[in-house]
Design brief:
Helix content: 40-55%
Strand order of the largest sheet: 3-2-1-4-5-10-9-6-7-8
Largest sheet: 10 strands, mixed
CATH class of the largest domain: Alpha Beta
Structural class: alpha/beta
Distance between the termini: 24 Å
CATH topology of the largest domain: Rossmann fold
CATH architecture of the largest domain: 3-Layer(aba) Sandwich
Order of helices and strands: EHEHEHEHEEHHEHEHEHHE
Number of strands: 10
Shape: elongated
Length: 275
């Protein structure tokens, strides 16, 4: 059965993402797997911690996951199947390992953490996950709780849409939640989309997604990521779909420290689906 994977470091923001994942799994009637990855060494030393420290960390994490699972099941309006897993090593590698052996619906992670150290550790993992995971990844802001996804946005740069827009995944998601679909295109002054590109992209999107009756929005701004976040907040989007690709504006966002912070601190959950 399809499964949502929710990694957690037990910080407040990651626990919020776990609750988001649990509610989504409940609505969809699918399984949930909770994952914690124990680091085996710190970045400032090549000497691994003693074995008893690793064993103690694993034992503590297993207990915390067991308690978290019990709480979710107690609060869930209907029963869902929850599995727990503790691994050691790199967080993103651990996520990949689990995704490869389950029927992954999506990975759900917190966007940042409440303090500087947690934000450095888990926020960095979030950005790395966006870059490298091939499974759908939902990034949940710390203050956002799961809703019925009445409005879903698709940020699209109108370039190579036929090979980069995940049509099947979008159709399935919009229909599962009976959502409105809003397609947002932001072009910059330095790279304006030609009338022909716009017409061709719009025609293709309409052919593929027309049955969903999407609403189109066009903007011109050199602050692409801010314009997208502002639009999402103003129009009360409950999820924003992005498709990281080699030459996309979203890939550029991931290379900028300032823009990374905007992504991590977005006011709306971001669903990243690779081409």
């Amino acid at each position: 059965m399809k499964t949502i994977l929710a990694p957690t470091d037990f910080s407040e923001v990651s626990l919020n993402a776990v609750n988001y994942a649990a509610q989504m799994a409940n609505i969809l009637g699918i399984n949930l797997t909770l994952l914690h990855v124990c680091p085996v060494s710190m970045t400032y030393t090549d000497v691994p911690p003693p074995a008893f420290y690793i064993e103690e960390s694993i034992s503590k994490a297993e207990k915390q996951l067991k308690e978290l699972k019990a709480k979710i099941l107690k609060d869930a309006p209907k029963k869902i199947t929850i599995k727990t897993k503790v691994l050691t090593g790199d967080v993103v590698s651990g996520i990949k390992n689990i995704c490869e052996v389950i029927d992954t619906y999506a990975v759900v992670m917190g966007a940042d953490s409440s303090n500087t150290i947690d934000r450095f550790l888990f926020g960095g993992n979030t950005i790395e996950a966006i870059k490298s995971l091939s499974w759908p990844l939902i990034i949940v802001p710390s203050q956002v709780h799961f809703g019925r996804l009445h409005k879903i946005g698709l940020a699209c740069d109108f370039r190579d849409v036929a090979s980069t827009v995940p049509v099947d995944e979008i159709i399935k998601l919009v229909r599962e939640f009976n959502s409105e679909l809003h397609i947002l295109h932001v072009q910059t002054e330095s790279r304006k989309t030609s009338d022909l590109e716009t017409a061709n992209a719009t025609r293709w999107l309409h052919d593929q997604l027309g049955a969903l009756n999407p609403k189109y929005h066009f903007m011109v701004s050199d602050k692409v990521e801010k314009s997208i976040n502002d639009f999402a907040e103003k129009n009360k989007l409950e999820m924003l779909i992005v498709t990281p690709k080699k030459h996309s504006f979203f890939n550029k966002i991931l290379k900028s420290s300032k823009s990374k912070n905007i992504v991590l601190q977005a006011q709306v959950p971001i669903l990243s689906i690779h081409e």
